[in-house]
Specification:
single chain, alpha+beta, four-stranded antiparallel β-sheet, three-stranded antiparallel β-sheet, elongated
Length: about 475
Amino acid sequence: MTESIAKAQVRPVYPTDLVASISTALSRVLMRGDRAWRQNRQLQVMMRQDPDIQHAIEVREQAGVSMKWRIKPVDEDDLAHKAKCMATEKAIRAIPEFVQMRRRTQQCIWYGATATALNWAMLPRPIEATAENENIGDDGKAESETASITIAPTRADPVPPDGIRWTADGRLVILSNPRSDRFNGYERVYTDGGSGVVVPDDERSAWLVAVWNKDAPNAADPHTADRSYAGHGLRSMLWDGWVRKQQLLQVGDSYAERLSRGTIMVGHDGTSQSEAAAKAVVDALGQAHAVTINTNAAEAVGGLDKMIQVFEASGTGNQIFRDMARDAGEQLKLCILGQTLTTDTAPTGLGSGVAEAHQDTFSKQLEYDTAVVDEAMTRDLVGPMWRANFPDDPRIPEFLSQNREDEEDTDKRIETAERLHAMGVPLALKDLYAESGFREPQGDEATVGGGGDPMGGVGDLLGSLQDEGVV
């Protein structure tokens, strides 16, 4: 069994092993699998600017970027480890335009993969952080540990999302100007998007790469081989639906141009002389929607009130195409947000659970998005920074967004604690302090509340804090 596992480890399965035919460029770089990029490189830019898509995708991206985050220690009780995490978090927040970098990373939702070039350097001044223990010692001072970061990114430069490729064996490729001397010494390769360079393994830590929705390739479509590395973004998924919407709008515009102006009917009595005169009138009008009609034949269907009469168009046909195009736009927003209440619907009134149900759907999508970005941040930002500054501590912490914290609602937990106390169930006072966000008072420190019953005092304190909106 051990031998078979070892053998499997040295024989990895690459995407090119799983598709029907060759899916790489001349230098074994996988071709771009994004359907929108393959079909039309100009229209895919317009696709992102479609109002239905633009607003929905910005809502989803900005919700993730605005999420609070922290560096979560592996061991919350290890004061030295906690200080290192605090210093790491402080150094990350100090990266120039970090919020913009995080936003670009979040755009992997749309493109499938995004990359940022990180310029690591020795800081002119160390970034320090101190972690203190809540318990005060006999000397009246709290136990503390200090850690410092001396190596961190000083620049974060964006990479075009469509300028990222992978080799068949998973090495990162960045498209670049062949005349640039920035990548001298790198292996230069040819790709379906132009010239590129293969990032060496020892410089991989200089690139922050986030990949959304990694997927197995479609065995019958060799173009999908890169999804194992480049992911499968919403742009590729929604391309066919967006094209359908544009086709419906196009047909509606053509219908409106040709038929929405009504029809001018010029009558004649059926004689050649009268018909020629009617045609002369039509020619003089110069309108494509003007026709002649035999008034004798028209009497069978009610006749004409006048020899020249205008029949206005109802617009029903045009409206049908407009409605279909609007429905197609709604489907695009539904795919992006999981629902449309976030962007289209006003509040439905007190007691309605509709908003909560839709918000729950959106929250689950947001949780997945932030988990993908958090994973990239942990691997390509926190990891290299940790190993460079704390090589003796192998416990790499996690970049964790707030919505992924494993916590219940504070109000509900406090209510549960009060009910358990009323039933006579003993509770740890330390847990109650931790839940409220306040620390336990030390020594002769001035306090409020309290009394003979610890739970009663804390319960009263937490109750008053709830009333004041603190917790």
